[in-house]
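Regression test case RT-17, inverse folding.

Input:
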């Protein structure tokens, strides 16, 4: 499947897409830019993609899982606890479609400020 590069300032994250309807829609919409928002230890941003919640959607994600928040048409990248987490879990605001995974260290996202530009494109 396709890989995507996400750039936020000097930060670069490579996402390996899964074989899901959400991933296919996101790849079809590339390239696009967005604006970063933060919520606890989560960075999220709007996309031009609209899709329904998949059957295996979940709100507690594992480190490196890349999510799509259906209600907000947003990509959500959690890297630690959010305001609704219990303990150290990564709990997102709603059940999300998991459409990708990264091996990159997401702790660098703690440097992202709301309002920063995010660019997404396929890896060359």
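Golden output:
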């Amino acid at each position: 499947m396709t890989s995507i590069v996400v750039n936020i300032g000097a930060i670069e994250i490579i996402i390996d897409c899964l074989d899901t309807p959400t991933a296919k829609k996101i790849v079809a919409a590339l390239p696009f830019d967005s604006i970063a928002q933060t919520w606890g230890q989560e960075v999220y941003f709007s996309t031009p993609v609209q899709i329904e919640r998949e059957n295996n959607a979940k709100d507690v994600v594992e480190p490196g899982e890349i999510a799509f928040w259906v209600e907000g048409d947003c990509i959500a990248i959690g890297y630690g606890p959010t305001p609704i987490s219990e303990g150290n879990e990564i709990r997102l605001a709603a059940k999300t479609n998991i459409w990708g995974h990264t091996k990159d260290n997401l702790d660098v996202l703690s440097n992202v400020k709301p309002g920063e530009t995010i660019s997404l494109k396929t890896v060359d």
